[in-house]
Amino acid sequence: MFSRAVLSIDPEAVAREAEQSIRAQVLGTLKRRGAVIGVSGGVDSAVVAFLCARALGPQKVLCLLMPERDSSSDSLRLGRQVVEALGVASVVEDIGPTLTAAGCYTRQDEAIRRLFPDFAEGWRCKVSLPSLLESERLNVSRLTVESPSGEVRSARMPLDVYLQLIAATNFKQRVRKMMEYYHADRLHFAVSGTPNRLEYDQGFFVKQGDGAADFKPIAHLYKTQVYALAEYLGVPEEIRRRPPTTDTFSLPQTQEEFFFALPYESMDLCLYAHDHQVAPREVAPTLGLTEAQTERVFKDIEAKRRTTRYLHLPALKVQSFQEV
């Protein structure tokens, strides 16, 4: 019988393996002195910071806290909890002025005004997808805005609006990565990525943004397993209780709303089942779904892999040749 137990891990053994790998990769393969981690206040970056501190020593870890205009205040506060718990060095880099200079907010607002012309300073927004469980679901993102008076409006986004809005917000991940590499270069450190297996597999990252890193110590772990590891490592409880967020738009928004369209616990199990050839009819009872709904999730997994494959590709060349 298929069950949630398929994602059970021995967290002590998993942590030990990850720490050994971090030491070998950072000090050996990459020949760097330590690690830089962009800490967001979420469980993934917290687990990576804890693993790096254990593997390399707190004195060889730098945590970057990188708020901007649309960041939740919780992100900075929870990021500081990680820093304090580990006793590592940290730097706060407010990336808002850089984003303003690059036109991130102007381009973002311009796209939103194509749907909501009165969108202005003081308004908030978010992007969301319908649930995968809806039988009549259209895989079209919706834009939701909220006025300063609390009025909420929502509409489906035409492709041009969606593309410009996402392109503008992608400045945020790319500027954060630029900051991480600045500090890594000045310290002769390596940059750690923070994606878990679900995010890595399904392309939930920005190319040359949060997808860029020198090593990715939890990319083999499902989100469910990351939470189990977080408890073992002693990641602060408030971070472990916090729902996974994008922290990209000004309105509160979960990763489920924006990209996965199902809770991570269900997506993890579906991804595992899909990759281990477990039939939807066997998976459905464990998730509390129908067979048809589970099949829909499997198809969405395949679709996301197809559409985000380019994110994993290196730069393409005219001819192949021997490389170093």
Count the domains: 2
Q: Tell me the overall shape.
A: globular
Q: Name the strands of the widest sheet in spatial order.
A: 3-2-1-7
How many β strands by DSSP?
Answer: 7
Number of helices: 13
The largest β sheet comes out as: 4 strands, parallel
The residue-averaged pLDDT reads 95
Which secondary structure elements does this structure contain, and how are they paired or packed?
Layout lengths: L10 H19 L5 E4 L4 H14 L4 E5 L7 H14 L2 E4 L3 H7 L1 H10 L10 E5 L13 E5 L5 E5 L2 H29 L2 E2 L5 H6 L20 H11 L3 H5 L13 H6 L3 H12 L4 H8 L3 H22 L12
Parallel strand pairs: 1-2, 1-7, 2-3
Antiparallel strand pairs: 4-5, 5-6
Helix pairs in contact: 1-2, 1-8, 2-8, 5-6, 11-13, 12-13
Explained architecture:
With 324 residues, this protein is of the alpha/beta class. The chain has two domains: 4-101 and 164-311, 3-Layer(aba) Sandwich (Rossmann fold), CATH 3.40.50; 103-163, Methyl-cpg-binding Protein 2, Chain A. Helices cover 50% and strands 9% of the residues. The chain is built from 13 helices and seven strands. It has helices spanning 11-29, 43-56, 73-86, 96-102, 104-113, 159-187, 197-202, 223-233, 237-241, 255-260, 264-275, 280-287, 291-312; strands at 35-38, 61-65, 89-92, 124-128, 142-146, 152-156, 190-191. It has a four-stranded parallel β-sheet with strand order 3-2-1-7, sandwiched between helices. It has a three-stranded antiparallel β-sheet with strand order 4-5-6. Helix 1 packs across helix 2. The longest helix has 29 residues, at 159-187. The termini are far apart. The model has no long low-confidence stretch (mean pLDDT 95).
